[in-house]
Amino acid sequence: MNKEGTQFDESFPHIFVVFGASGDLAKKKIYPTLWWLYRDNLLPKKTIFFGYARSSLTVREIREKCTPYMKVRPDEEQAYEDFWNINYYVSGAYDSRTDFEKLNQEMCTFENGLHANRLFYLALPPSAFQSVSVNIRNACMGQKGWNRIIVEKPFGKDAASSKALSDHLASLFKEEQLYRIDHYLGKEMVQNLMTIRFGNRIFNPTWNRENISSVLISFKEPFGTQGRGGYFDEFGIIRDVMQNHLLQILSLVAMEKPVTCHPDDIRDEKVKVLKSIKSLELDDCVLGQYVGNPDGKDDDAKMGYLDDPTVPAGSKTPTFALAVLQIKNERWDGVPFILRCGKALNERKAEVRIQYRDVPGDIFGGRSKRNEMVIRVQPGEALYVKMMTKSPGITFDMEETELDLTYNQRYKEINLPDAYERLILDVFCGSQMNFVRDDELSEAWRIFTPLLHHIENNDVQPIPYVHGSRGPKEADEKCDKSNFKYYGSYKWNNSKM
Ligand SMILES: NC(=O)C1=CN([C@@H]2O[C@H](COP(=O)(O)OP(=O)(O)OC[C@H]3O[C@@H](n4cnc5c(N)ncnc54)[C@H](OP(=O)(O)O)[C@@H]3O)[C@@H](O)[C@H]2O)C=CC1
Ligand SMILES: O=C1O[C@H](COP(=O)(O)O)[C@@H](O)[C@H](O)[C@H]1O
């Protein structure tokens, strides 16, 4: 059962179909997730899995491709065999109705005329979305149970293409059948944002422009495109991470309290806050592209973005972006929300920093530093609040310290599930709380489309930054100008870790 009390129909068979079963996402994420859910007895008992792709493959070959990602413990060998015994594979073209009819026949044989539910996962490149969705609608919909379609990003490239895709899907399926995945919504600390904000009395009264100076939401990755540059170059870091993952986090940080925890009440509030954000302009941004570091520790670090042979020569696609968003509503007017993301930076990290304003009426001679609440999404989930304290002992000095909730200290026995595990389970349960609704998506594109077109049409030259650095120095300067202060004086006592 999930949070809203939705349960799966345990008594009915369920068929989970992976389109693009031969691909990267399927082997690295989807099959491992299905195996973990099966292993942990979280799926309805009578669930089976179908893979579908163009390649002529067997289940054994898919199993071999997935092996490095499945994390099977020695005592799980039998369960692992059982899992693969309920896997099937059909090969066919994505644009052939006859091939989809063949898949349907195989599913019908299993269902034997009884009530059964079907889930379709589109782990496919955007070029295949159109024909696959039409063929699912025409040839693969179960007649007696429900049908749910899980769609992976990119949901278009700008407002117009996203609308075309949304209209296309809406002509085939109802909104309640569509599950648009943003896997950041499945991460523990992202899911925790609602509880932190609305389950505590202490934070909410200060969660506003009177008390908060700025909010910084960051995503950093320490590696470059690693041969995936051809795909990346078509989209760039804004479409890859900022327009979806970071904006989703922003909406959970900034939205008003929903009327209830019902998925549509939450998504109504997310849409409302997005509507209060004006579209971005070039001046709101800093864009960067990484260059190789000759002293880098490995080949990836030595390679610049343009050295990736799959990237078109002279590409100006940004691999780093910082954008300052303004929310024009009563709670947030004047508080910069800074979104920052980049590849080939100095560390792997995703976090939210809520920085408070200076204490008014200072009596400490300017020694007080701003409070900051840090919600670390990864790695090592944590929530800490940086605060001032009197230095312990016979002194009236003051120092920076923290109130600290570090998950691996506080919750030693808990193994946090992977984001995809939570989200796929939500689809079985019928909960759309952590999936992107069509109106949310269209607001997200409204905010970014003019900027994206501007970047593309005006040929903006990104600022070079060295692989493994913190990104362009102009980004730090922009944070500073946007009322986010970095003191460089805070010391973390990590002997506790
Ligand atoms: N519970 C826990 O696990 C806790 C862990 N810690 C750890 O302690 C360490 C320090 O804490 P932290 O909150 O980062 O505090 P700091 O004040 O040290 O740093 C804040 C952030 O400022 C950014 N920064 C670094 N250099 C510059 C610069 N020259 N100009 C502008 N910004 C800069 C860095 O992020 P960026 O590069 O992204 O801009 C950094 O993370 C961290 O490693 C943190 O994870 C602290 C408290 C609790
Ligand atoms: O969606 C994406 O996310 C990954 C990062 O995901 P994470 O869960 O490992 O933080 C990113 O590498 C990729 O470029 C992007 O498309």
TrEMBL record:
Function in brief: Cytosolic glucose-6-phosphate dehydrogenase that catalyzes the first and rate-limiting step of the oxidative branch within the pentose phosphate pathway/shunt, an alternative route to glycolysis for the dissimilation of carbohydrates and a major source of reducing power and metabolic intermediates for fatty acid and nucleic acid biosynthetic processes. Catalyzes the rate-limiting step of the oxidative pentose-phosphate pathway, which represents a route for the dissimilation of carbohydrates besides glycolysis.
PANTHER family, per database record: GLUCOSE-6-PHOSPHATE 1-DEHYDROGENASE, GLUCOSE-6-PHOSPHATE 1-DEHYDROGENASE G6PD
Biological or metabolic pathway of the protein: Carbohydrate degradation; pentose phosphate pathway; D-ribulose 5-phosphate from D-glucose 6-phosphate (oxidative stage): step 1/3
Domain of life: Eukaryota
The protein, known as: Glucose-6-phosphate 1-dehydrogenase
Domain Glucose-6-phosphate dehydrogenase C-terminal per the UniProt entry, residue ranges: 194-486
Family statement: Belongs to the glucose-6-phosphate dehydrogenase family.
Gene name in the database record: Zw
A molecular function (GO) term: glucose-6-phosphate dehydrogenase activity
Subcellular location: Cytoplasm, Cytosol
GO cellular component: cytosol
Catalytic activity: D-glucose 6-phosphate + NADP(+) = 6-phospho-D-glucono-1,5-lactone + NADPH + H(+)
Entry's EC annotation: 1.1.1.49
A Pfam entry, by short name: G6PD_C
Broad class of where this protein is predominantly found: cytoplasm
N-terminal signal peptide: none
PROSITE patterns in alphabetical order: G6P_DEHYDROGENASE
